């Protein structure tokens, strides 16, 4: 069973998936910073300085007017944090767009490599050996000669 597990882990697909997950996790931090530090301020310019991250409705509980989302949650209030959701959607769209561009670039490189492979002259074919009929005819002739 241990050998089967080792063979499973050593297969290319599993290793590729593990690398993809690790790179994806690191990439998430970059995208989160991009959204929080670059995109949110730009959106804030168009919306009059509103930062979507702290936008919420209080469903139940007492929260001081103008309190941040974290303060509302710390106060034990039930909140409908639509701003966090908007930012999660923006994060998703950015990640999906970047992944699309990466896949598109990889496919372009792969297609170019395949075209070069197809355009490369093929090596001359090795001379064909005798066919089955030729061998049988030779055996027949050798048997007749005896």
Question: What does this protein look like?
Answer:
The chain has 146 residues and is mainly alpha-helical. It contains 5 helices and 2 strands. It has helices at 2-10, 12-46, 69-74, 82-119, 132-145, and strands at 57-60, 78-80. A two-stranded antiparallel ribbon has the order 1-2. Helix 2 crosses helix 4. The longest helix has 38 residues, at 82-119. It is elongated, with a radius of gyration of 33 Å.
Task: Chart the SSEs and their pairings.
Elements: H1 2-10, H2 12-46, E1 57-60, H3 69-74, E2 78-80, H4 82-119, H5 132-145
Antiparallel strand pairs: 1-2
Helix pairs in contact: 2-4
In short:
With about 150 residues, this protein is mainly α.
| CATH architect. name | Orthogonal Bundle
The tally of domains stands at 1
The CATH homologous superfamily is termed Large-conductance mechanosensitive channel, MscL, domain 1
* Helix-strand makeup class: mainly alpha
Q: Helical residue percent? A: 55-70%
Q: Can you tell me the residue ranges where pLDDT is under 50 for at least 5 consecutive residues?
A: none
What multimeric state do the chains show?
single chain
Order of helices and strands: HHEHEHH
Please tally the β strands and state the result: 2
Q: What order do the strands of the largest sheet run in, or round the barrel if closed?
A: 1-2
Question: What is the number of helical segments per DSSP (H or I, 4+ residues)?
Answer: 5
Average predicted local confidence, pLDDT = 81
DSSP strand content:
under 5%
